[in-house]
Amino acid sequence: MPKKSLTKKAVRRADRSARRPPIHQRRQFRMHHKLLFDVILRQAGTLAKAILEGVMNAVDADAQKCEIHVGPKQVRISDDGRGFRSYEEVTTWFEVFGQPHEESEKKTFGRFRMGRGQLFAYGKNTWLTNGLQMQCDCKHRGLDYEVKALEPAVPGCTVLVDLYEPLVPSEIEETVRSLKIWCRWAPVQVVLNDEVISRDPREFEWSEETDDAWIGLDESPQLRIYNQGIFVLEYSKHRFGVGGEVVSKREIKVNFARNEIQSDCPVWRRLRPFIDQRGRERSVSKRTLDDAQRTSLRLRAKRGQLSCEEIRKLKLFTAVTGRHYNLAQVADRSYNGKLTTAPRGDRLGDHVHQARLAFVLAEEVIKEMGFADAAAFVRWGNRLRADGEFGGKCQLWLSNRTYVPFEDIAKGMDLTFEIVPEAKYTVNEKAWMSLLNGIRHRLLLTDEDKHDWRNASKFANSRKILVGRSEAADGWTDAKTYVAVNRKFLQTCPLTVDGMVRAADLLLHEFCHREPDTEDHDHDHEFYQLYHDSLERFMTVFLRHAIQLLPRCLKKLGKQLTKAQLHLADQLALAEYGKQELNEKIAAKAASGEE
């Protein structure tokens, strides 16, 4: 008799019953072999990082020396340590990834027993150790490997990696460069391509030493952290306000990839505040801050780790022009009682700031400090108390500063830069152009004094000076052929000492620009250094020759010197007469002495 088929409802009930787990069951997570394969292939981001694991294995094997050779097609790592001493150690420790360490094993770095897999990812591996040979080729054989006896026995451990992809010279150079940094303080002698690259930290003079570490702090752009001599990571200087190297004496707990320090590491919990305090002390005491130190101190100020007095004195806040100010200067009432922001180097923002329509803070400062906008920055400044803490009764610094969106202040302004045709120059403009172009070839900047005078194209003063028209700047340049001076500037600039000083300052500013400044631009440290180094000499030469040339320029235009200008010329002439007379007396005295 044929069996009666199940109804659809019965089938669904049976399926649910099959999928339903027991009421209570304890199970264990498992690992698919593909995960192990991925761990092997994806641990190391670079070949240098994989080789570094070989150095750490040498340290764990109590080696005294580790030799590395990096070539285009093969990498060789050899050490004189214990190696694998038996077939049982190979099948237990080499074969099994993640095998727990026994109490009898004293490992400096080995924790996960996974690092050797990093070398597997870059080529066919041949391991030679104490009469044994292990070969693996993950690219072609997957997780299978071969082990066999080897005669004669090779002491220690030698790893040969026949690379899947040959290295070009730049890749070899990059690998060597990285290893020289990462193995600098290795606790075993490391020889790389026949050069010893490791040093003993105990024989080096450090700026600080604690029970946990040797610490060398300096002005480097990075602070490198070494776990018992092996590189872990580096922090940008702005993190602590200081660079250098920290070599731990004790183990630093690191993550699986050995490129981050775990938050619960007791050694780092002691070292970090120590380094942070030293970085603060060095930064606060410096007369001139670099960008990294300035960023570090700004963040400290926001966290309430600087006193109000320190914030008042330290130039932590960068304007759109690239110049740095302390908080008291930011709050200066001369900026129309307003504060706004624009990207650093923004041309229109520069004009607003220079015209003192508002203090234009660089947007980058707001972002680095983690404020949503400049209004939040102003509120923060208003909460500062004299003791450097937040909240309270005494509002300081920014209480007289109103935040205004930049587009509201710049409304109606434009960035048009026009050159005025010479035929449309006014008499005053003709006098100024004749004067400025007549003396510009004498105006060398400090760093140009060494240039060949015959190659005039190298000089900033080879640019012709023209009259321009703009709503955005008093002057601008293409950094090659011309410097334009705004006719509005010239209208307010009389042909007197005061006017000449203003014109000289503007001309020096434009001469210091090595790139066109008609678009967004930044006044960096090199710009201000050149400006500062050139100022005294430039101003002296400018005034002396401008006063001498002024009568001739005015005579060409059919104009006469004013009383003030005549008096100035008289003073200069008297000074020259006095100088000549003094030189004659010195010469006569010298001649008399010789006789």
Layout of secondary structure:
Layout: H1 8-19, H2 33-42, H3 47-60, E1 65-70, E2 74-79, H4 87-94, H5 117-120, E3 123-129, E4 132-136, H6 138-141, E5 145-149, E6 157-163, H7 169-182, E7 189-192, E8 195-196, E9 208-209, E10 213-218, E11 222-227, E12 230-236, H8 237-240, E13 243-248, H9 266-285, H10 291-302, H11 308-313, E14 317-318, E15 324-325, H12 327-330, E16 338-342, H13 347-354, E17 359-362, H14 363-369, H15 374-383, E18 402-403, H16 406-409, E19 417-419, H17 427-439, E20 464-470, E21 475-477, E22 482-486, H18 487-491, H19 497-511, H20 525-556, H21 563-594
Parallel strand pairs: 1-7, 11-13, 16-17, 16-18, 20-22
Antiparallel strand pairs: 1-2, 2-6, 3-4, 3-6, 4-5, 7-8, 9-10, 10-13, 11-12, 14-15, 19-20, 21-22
Helix pairs in contact: 3-7, 17-20, 19-20, 20-21
How would you portray this structure in words?
The protein has 595 residues and is of the alpha+beta class. It is built from 21 helices and 22 strands. α3 runs parallel beside α7, α17 crosses α20 and α19 (497-511) packs across α20 (525-556). The N and C termini lie far apart (151 Å). The model is unreliable at 386-396 and 449-457 (pLDDT under 50).
The proportion of strand residues reads: 15-25%
Radius of gyration: 36 Å
What's the structural domain tally?
A: 4
Strand order of the largest sheet: 5-4-3-6-2-1-7-8
Question: Given the C-alpha coordinates, what overall shape results?
Answer: elongated
CATH architecture of the largest domain, by name, is 2-Layer Sandwich
Beta strands, count? 22
Overall mean pLDDT stands at 81
CATH superfamily of the largest domain: Histidine kinase-like ATPase, C-terminal domain
Enter the CATH topology name of the largest domain. Heat Shock Protein 90
Please summarize the sheet with the most strands: 8 strands, mixed
Distance between the termini: 151 Å
Poorly predicted runs are: 386-396, 449-457
Tally of alpha and pi helices: 21
Regarding quaternary structure, what we see is: single chain
CATH class assignment of the largest domain? Alpha Beta
- Label the structural class: alpha+beta
Helix content: 40-55%
